[in-house]
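Example record used in the benchmark description.
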Amino acid sequence: MQTGFKPYEGLLVVSLEQAVAAPLASCHFAEGGARVIKIERDGVGDFARAYDSAVKGAASYFVWANHGKESLCLDIKAPEDAALLHRLLEKADIFIQNLAPGAVERAGFGSDVLRARHPRLITCDITGYGDSGDYRDMKAYDFLVQCESGLVAVNGAPGHPGRIGVSVCDIGASMNAIIGLQKALIARGITGKGSGVQVSLFDTAADWMTVPLMHSDYAGKAPQPVGLHHPSIAPYGGFATADGEMLAISIQNEREWANLCTQVFGRPELITDPLFCSAAARVRNRRDTDALVAAYFAAHSRAELEKRLRAAAIAYGAVNSVATFARHPQLRRVPVTLSDGQEAALVGRPTRHSFDADCPRFGRVPALGEHSAAIRAEFA
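Model output (structure tokens):
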């Protein structure tokens, strides 16, 4: 297979989308070579366009999730625009939507109706809580789903539950939508028929909460917030160094504990000390365990500690700020052109294939309605 192969080339994706979950999913297909037409409201557009102005005047979320697409402004309640959308869907392979529950059905674009009319069409509905149940019509912003699913209850510091600092439910729902759509494309290749994909933010978060839920169901107690620590492993967490940095370590087994004691601390007697002689003992005596590590780290510089930890094969990592992360030697950047012609940089694709050429740049971020006239003429 030649390098630079685009596996989605030739696919047409139509996405009636806003915010993060659906735009991020359709952007995956744009990066893979599909033609993606983003449907927006005239004059308003995707409200993520106005989330912030951090990227040279453009919104960070919008730039991240919408490069490489075409923007078409439609009023799907207007007969002429509804007819145009149906003409688009006659040619489309995938239709994605994440409007408020019931909105597309009321406009005549419900997934079941569309697949009956266009049998090869694959539809994807991304919702907050699914299409049934008492919460079906609830507004479901990422933070609220984090709260409802218990994610915040197992994050943060002791006594202070915390929101995860990025929109993980939106992002996770998008990834699940991509997985579902890829499965549907394979199924269509076998059967010749489209199918429907349903994903919700709540189901996504609930899946991630399986282990805490099983602890609650079967052990009678769910894990509590422990900050940078771990509820059942010690030492595990971040410790300040002599030069004001912070390093995190994770000791997963007795061999690693022995290496830490002998090769880093220079205190082999700690291996058999009753306070620390087993994983259970170290967790039971976490305060003493952490104090021991903290005292040693506080007396040595980050550079010296990293040298010793690496030599001892101890898992460690720096507790970086975002500014420090921005200079990380492993961070890959890819340029993108903003809708006004300026250039910015995004993080490189997280998945790479052997048939991928090095991505020289992402597709351009569309201005609101930038392609409306051309698409209307094409599908007239």
